[in-house]
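Sample intake — MFS transporter
Collected from: Mycobacterium deserti
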Amino acid sequence: MRPWIVWATGLLAYIVAVLDRTTLGVSGLDASQRFGASPGVLSTFVVLQVIVYAGAQVPAGLLLDRFGSKALILTGAGLMAAGQFALAFTESLPAAIAARAVLGLGDAVTFISVLRLVPQWFDARRVPLVTQLTGICGQLGQVLSAVPFFALLAGAGWTTAYVAVAALGVVSMVLTLALVKDTPNGRVVATDSTSVHEVLSSVKTVWLRPGTRLGFFTHMGTQFSVTVFALMWGVPYLTAAQGLSTAVAGTLLSLSVVTAISAGVVIGIFTGRHPHRRSRLVLAIIASNAIAWTVVLALPGRSPLWLLVLLVIVISVGGPGSMVGFDFARTFNPSATLGTAQGMVNMGGFVASLLVMQAMGVILDAAGDLSTESFRLAWTVQYAVWALATAGILITRQKARRAMRAAVGSQPAGGDRMLLEAFETRYAGR
């Protein structure tokens, strides 16, 4: 029972992080009036969030390996609560941007810190499913921002709504302090001083492990399409280019969340039972994303609603699919550097998302409108990322298999599954 209590407490911190991440999105009109900012200026908040989140992943991973999950979850919750308190009371646009950057830093350390608790508290066969459940349940934060937070914003006003969210972060800090331990035996992570050279050497070592890069390219190839769709260009594409109403577009985004939840459970069970088939599953998800977009973009004019529904369902599987990247990081890295590896993996999808969002913006600006033809051209930038990620997965997968055989010494009887289990026992589990 104790592992589930520790995980649930960490999960609460992640749910609050997702809530904090998405509050500005549902309060866009209020934010525009409060800060006197145009929609274009407010869109920089989204880009800033992604930049800070992606850029902080490796430093966050290093801090996680040094100080442990509990310290980082507390720090993240504190930063996010401070950012939300600042947003609650300021009417200055520069101050709001700074507060959002602080919030982004707190968000950046939370997810990988919660993920690091999972292999410490659960046996190896449960880890993939619990990892998927972490990502799935974390999306409850988006529901909290869309329903109770939005209702509070409309009824009680900006300051009350944002103070309430910040207070929830404080509650999360108190529960983390009381209930979370880094490991069952309470082992404290070493905090010996480390030189800059040693830090850089550690980062290089973790990155050069083929399993880390396999996780990076997995996260990159599966996550970016649905992230770009949900965070920035999905609603404009569905309404302006495809002619759907705002209500229907919102329903499709809700369908995306339901699909991700359902797919996450299936993927978690599958990867737990068939760990030696994980890369094949990832390649299938990437291929399905590319095929679905190809069909939609190849049609002249607007697509039928049923095809857009199918597109949203297919790309939404990429969200839980990206979680397999963290499982690769766990498999091919010892626990002492797992935080750094997970931070590197987490960069993959968000860096790709940022580049695609910006590239699409440039193309749409050059086109001068949000027509079907303009979006058709803009969405094609995805193919470059899929090609890079697929090549990276195929190359690093072979290198990872060679590393396993070298570590084990020979091919155990039983094939790939036995090889993987022997490798985890002798290397990653230590």
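Post-analysis note: The mean pLDDT is 86.
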